[in-house]
């Protein structure tokens, strides 16, 4: 049973003192038969009280407000998590029966949300590709794996070409993006053939860096619902099954349901965002400054005054940088 140590630091550095920083965090790993949290240490600037609740999709969500004037806000999450390998689906049911089972889910809660397609200009082109890829006697499992491979082979992994607000139209035209974009395209393909698909945020955890995309940052992938099996994790960024090396934080319809950190505050809109993630490195885990020194840094500068909603959208946009 693999055990992982993970540290995830989010730090905002403001141009001048700000106050009334109200935030929502989804940094609490999912707990089920395949994943358990041994311990979590969460430290936040000012030690505010964190209220938690379970959202509609079963995620643990924290909320806090730091009212005192401050120039830095740091959210530091340390995790000790164990995972368990999940056996892969066994295709011992006739494919037609599996597709019939999926049809019955189209009007059932909670699958309805995970079957809604997003219209975009390239939808007809994508439908044609799906038809070309279809084969006789395909099971939903085989289709999910083939779609995963298609996204992996036909979309280029490039950081910085998209943001959290980038729509499917642009991702389709660019044929490029990061793990969030790969997951969104794969989910659209699965939903087109009536396979429920949901977005997953989390971490890739390997004992040694092996070149997998998404290491050293938060990651995103998709899950497909298969009859007589349940939710199967599929990582199109790496063209693999998401199993015991993928630690899950949250699930939802898309990125906005799973954003690790988002919030609003009163004060200057100019600030810098630093995000760092480390897995299984004790020297780094015990030295947050070392992590930040190598962190992804985003400067957010504006000459025009902004209202709280604009600042909220600005901060949300930066969360996409955490999922590269």
Automatic annotation (TrEMBL):
InterPro entries: Bac_transglu_N, Papain-like_cys_pep_sf, Transglutaminase-like. It comes from the Bacteria. GO terms for biological process: proteolysis. GO terms for molecular function: peptidase activity. The keyword Mitochondrion does not apply. Pfam families: Bact_transglu_N, Transglut_core. The keyword Hydrolase applies. This is Transglutaminase-like putative cysteine protease. It comes from Mucilaginibacter frigoritolerans. The lineage of its organism: Bacteria, Pseudomonadati, Bacteroidota, Sphingobacteriia, Sphingobacteriales.
């Amino acid at each position: 049973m693999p055990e992982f140590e993970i540290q995830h630091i989010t730090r905002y550095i403001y141009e001048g003192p700000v106050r009334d920083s109200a935030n929502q965090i989804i940094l609490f790993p999912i707990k089920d038969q395949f994943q358990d949290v041994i311990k979590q240490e969460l430290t936040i600037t000012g030690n505010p009280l964190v209220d938690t609740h379970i959202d509609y999709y079963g995620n643990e969500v924290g909320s806090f407000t730091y009212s005192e004037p401050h120039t830095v806000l740091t959210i530091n999450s340390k995790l000790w998590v164990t995972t368990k390998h999940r056996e892969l689906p066994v295709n011992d049911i006739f494919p037609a029966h599996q597709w019939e089972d999926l049809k019955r889910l189209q009007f059932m809660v909670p699958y309805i949300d995970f079957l809604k397609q997003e219209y975009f200009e390239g939808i007809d082109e994508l439908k044609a590709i799906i038809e070309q890829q279809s084969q006789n006697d395909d099971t939903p499992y085989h289709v999910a794996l083939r779609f995963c491979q298609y996204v992996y082979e036909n979309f280029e992994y490039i950081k910085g070409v998209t943001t959290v607000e980038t729509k499917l139209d642009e991702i389709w035209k660019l044929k490029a993006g990061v793990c969030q974009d790969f997951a969104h395209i794969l989910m659209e393909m699965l939903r087109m053939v009536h396979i429920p698909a949901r977005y997953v945020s989390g971490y890739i955890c390997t004992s040694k860096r092996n070149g997998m995309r998404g290491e050293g940052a938060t990651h995103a992938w998709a899950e497909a619902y298969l009859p007589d099996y349940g939710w199967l994790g599929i990582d199109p960024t790496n063209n693999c099954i998401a199993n015991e090396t993928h630690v899950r934080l949250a699930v939802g319809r898309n990125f906005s349901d799973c954003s690790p950190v988002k919030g609003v505050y009163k004060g200057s809109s100019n600030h810098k965002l630093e995000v760092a993630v480390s897995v299984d490195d004790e020297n780094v885990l015990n030295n947050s400054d070392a992590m930040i020194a190598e962190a992804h840094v985003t400067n957010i500068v504006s000459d025009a005054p902004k209202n709280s909603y604009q600042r909220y959208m600005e901060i949300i946009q930066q969360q996409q940088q955490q999922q590269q």
